[in-house]
Automatic annotation (TrEMBL), chains A, B:
<feature type="domain" description="HTH tetR-type">
    <location>
        <begin position="15"/>
        <end position="75"/>
    </location>
</feature>
<dbReference type="InterPro" id="IPR050109">
    <property type="entry name" value="HTH-type_TetR-like_transc_reg"/>
</dbReference>
<dbReference type="InterPro" id="IPR041474">
    <property type="entry name" value="NicS_C"/>
</dbReference>
<protein>
    <submittedName>
        <fullName>TetR/AcrR family transcriptional regulator</fullName>
    </submittedName>
</protein>
<feature type="DNA-binding region" description="H-T-H motif">
    <location>
        <begin position="38"/>
        <end position="57"/>
    </location>
</feature>
<dbReference type="Pfam" id="PF17938">
    <property type="entry name" value="TetR_C_29"/>
</dbReference>
<dbReference type="InterPro" id="IPR009057">
    <property type="entry name" value="Homeodomain-like_sf"/>
</dbReference>
<dbReference type="InterPro" id="IPR001647">
    <property type="entry name" value="HTH_TetR"/>
</dbReference>
<keyword id="KW-0238">DNA-binding</keyword>
<dbReference type="InterPro" id="IPR036271">
    <property type="entry name" value="Tet_transcr_reg_TetR-rel_C_sf"/>
</dbReference>
<dbReference type="Pfam" id="PF00440">
    <property type="entry name" value="TetR_N"/>
</dbReference>
Amino acid sequence: MAAPSSDTERQRDKDRTRADILDVATREFADKGYTGARVDEIAERTSTTKRMIYYYFGGKEQLYIAVLEQAYLAIRALEAELDVEHLEPEDAIRRLAELTFDHHEAHPDFIRLVSIENIHRAEHIARSEVLAGLANPALDGLTQILERGRAAGRFRDDVDPLDVHMVISSFCVFRLANRHTFAAIFGRDMLDPGRREHYRRMLGDLLIDYLTS
Amino acid sequence: MAAPSSDTERQRDKDRTRADILDVATREFADKGYTGARVDEIAERTSTTKRMIYYYFGGKEQLYIAVLEQAYLAIRALEAELDVEHLEPEDAIRRLAELTFDHHEAHPDFIRLVSIENIHRAEHIARSEVLAGLANPALDGLTQILERGRAAGRFRDDVDPLDVHMVISSFCVFRLANRHTFAAIFGRDMLDPGRREHYRRMLGDLLIDYLTS
DNA sequence: CGCTTAATGTACGAACTAGTGAGTTAACGC
DNA sequence: GCGTTAACTCACTAGTTCGTACATTAAGCG
């Protein structure tokens, strides 16, 4: 056989092995935290061996950083799809907030990785050339929306886009990141599907009432 | 000497030894997380030995649960001091929010412990008889304020106290818990003293605008 | 003042954990 | 075909980490 074609199962595949490790590692780190995750455990769930983790990534820490990079880039790629330029400012804000709301709910592992990284004071993000200062497409969209609302005299003129982004993130992140202690203390599951629409609408109301006051 | 008096330095003191261990352990667990914390490290920073940790607490996990219990009870004791019955509903809401805002900022270790516990899916809180279902005095106060505001026709009548509490917590917790990744990605320190008043006021505005819309 | 026991210190071990040394085999260009 | 090298396997180790067996000493009581 001359060259491996797409329908041929290659026994050795650099990309597939790497992707396999990264995928398993993402789940393991998100599940157990950086310190709690075990390299041997990751290796076992992989279709390859522990030696390959060191071959491709160098060590536990570099593997964890690679996991963070992949997770952030994937989320940012999703955010870049945001298209709200055709909407009225109020509707655009709601749409943007709901996009974040939905994204967070759809990617609990990412939220867990962020929480874990904050426990470690973002030292790994700081060490990553890819992530340090990675721009946020959603923030650019938000800036434009606020500008349009302000120009139309419908939004107050003393709001910083990053502050609004912070409010949206607070709400959406808290709902996922703190759901366990919240449920244990107050007996309410913030992820209960029956309350989903209520929270989604509430976030929009909160933002619009503030911006138009 | 017959009995140990208060001015006598007792060489053996059950309470002091226990409190010492608990204090050191709180800092260690908040700093490194449950898995990251080392029993030997805690012992070393104590004025006693590792053997005593096992003598008084039984093991790493029970020590961690004891740390959580003490931290939660201390915070709840502070919250119980809330006195807003003499204030107008709007001012009472702001006061309550600012109290939470200040408390969170003053107790970063507590916020870290909560984040860590959420990573572990609150399994230790669930195992603690003291903490499971521990009532929140601040929530009772909030319920009364909302009721008064609603009766006076100044607050909307479709708000759940726990939802308002969630919004307050989201904002205050996010500011502390996610400050590192937020700073790494956006270059803004949410704990910058120069922005403190801005955030404090913003939270109040956010709540009042929503409740009075 | 000696007896009892709660409180404390010392030394150690079994299991785990990140990482590696050295050899092996499949893929691919020539 | 064949040599080179990238991809891969296996067995192993040095250091760590929770936990404990055992010895010891201070405190209080009759």
